[in-house]
Amino acid sequence: MNLSDSQTAGHGGPRRVSAMEAVLAHLRGAIERGEYEIGHKLPSESALGKEFEVSRSVVREALRGLQALGLTVSKTGKGTFVTASGPVENPTFGTYSARDLFEVRRHVEIPVAGYAALRRSTDDLDLLGHLVERMDLETDNTAWVALDSLFHITIAQASGNPVFGKVIEEIRDALARQSSFLNQLGGRRTRSNTEHREIVTAIASGSEADAVAAMTSHLEHVENALTTIVRPGHTTHQNKDD
Q1: What CA–CA distance (Å, rounded) separates 147 from 162?
Q2: Which of 4, 187, 210, 212 is geometrically suited to a Cys-Cys bond with 202, CB 3.0 to 4.6 A?
Q3: Shortest CA distance to 218 belongs to which of 192, 189, 242, 236?
């Protein structure tokens, strides 16, 4: 089964999806249709790689996606087993759930952006500008995710309150896992780059209200993207530009 030409619908028409997305979609569909029942073991990485004509690293990423969706569990030395017939509404990224992350981000990163607009230094703005430039040019997902994490930590540091930076550092790994998941399954990277620039522009303007609005919009888009993956046809927030 060759997956090189797979496409999916999205804003502005169909977009070409990665091999990992296509493998995950096929496996997710098979689980939801009952082809792999709860408790059953999925084929090995090698067998799946041959079936879909992709590398084992692609299969491995797809299996991680299934696990994040709550559909499977991986047992060291034994394989991957089906645990549910449909995705959980609150997927887990590392040690924190999506709900954990969204609740904290709403109450921390939104006011942090406002404080950053009022307190940011020239060095803060230079670093934020440098980061968005690098994210625009970056093509490697892992490298982009690392820059994304640094971007949000830099905003927290620009707030002038070191406690905010500590909070973001605590959830950094979970945010990176979630960001990677959304980029690979939701095609979020290009849109995120635009939203990041809007946040930097608002912070640079010195407007607390604009910075708060830009960060609020960004987090709502992130939440909607995750909801769309987990529950197609549903959104958490309705935005004017959606």
Answers
A1: 20
A2: 210
A3: 192
